[in-house]
Amino acid sequence: MEFIVVIPARFASMRLPGKPLALIGDKPMIQHVYERCRLANAARVIIATDDERIAKAASEFGAEVCMTAAEHQSGSDRLAEVCRTLNFSDDDIVVNVQGDEPFISPLNIEQVALGLANSKSKMATLSTPITSDEEVFNSNVVKVVSNNNDEALYFSRAPIAWQRGSFEQKEVKDLSHCQRHIGIYAYRAGFLADYVKLPVSTLEQLESLEQLRVLENGYSIHIEPAKEAPGMGIDTQEDLAQAQITYKLLQL
After folding, report:
1. DSSP output for 101-153
2. Does a cis peptide bond (omega within 30 degrees of 0) precede residue 161?
3. Which of 36, 73, 169, 177 has its CA 20 to 30 A from that of 80?
4. The pairing of beta strand 27-28 with beta strand 93-96
5. Which CATH class is domain 4-127+182-251?
């Protein structure tokens, strides 16, 4: 099975401007992400960006770069442009790896691609168990519930499935049904082209979760537990400081 990884990378992050070029050790973050993706046995790894500074840095460490428009509202929109520009076939499997995941598991990248290849769904993604009460009630932690066919039923920033009688008191009696969504996606290139033509959905706007556009339009998303626990993503200066500490420890 062949698949292509595309890493969307924007310079203008709201909470951490210039994030892809922030140093972790002696390398920019985007290089760490790229090198982790290369370990996943992808046929190609492409950095998609609208910023010449990121493109220049990526070219210097040998990455394939695809320049994209600046006005994209989501990583999926940027991926769709890459598919058009590079003339991917409709059946090509494309994995979207966020450019702020310097510790992403190569095994999980392969897993999400294989999950799509072996399913009838239009998209595939991963989840991981929620391990603390704090995560359950944290709106920055996206929760997901699925059916017995490994298809996502719903994604939400709210606690789901609601444990009546305990959640009202901010108590969690059973974490076994609580799953956190991991923001990695696999698509067929042909579906990406269709997806970006769909109108922004009501639920997508309410939750600020673009994957809800897929569900609200009647498509299924394959989901399964990640084989490895996900590494930390970088959203803030505090995350970056922790990532630098983590990287140093991994080198010891």
Report:
1. -TT--HHHHHHHHHHHHTSSSSEEEEEEE---HHHHT-TTS-EEEE-TTSBEE
2. yes
3. 36
4. unpaired
5. alpha beta
**pTM of this structure:** 0.93
Per-residue pLDDT of the chain (252 residues; tens, 9 = 90+): 899 999 999 888 777 889 999 999 999 999 999 999 999 999 999 999 999 999 999 999 999 999 999 888 787 888 999 999 999 999 999 999 999 999 999 999 999 999 999 999 999 999 999 999 999 999 989 999 999 999 999 999 999 988 888 878 787 888 888 999 999 999 999 999 999 999 999 999 999 999 999 999 999 999 999 999 999 899 899 999 999 999 999 885
Residue 47 tokens, joined: 């950095």
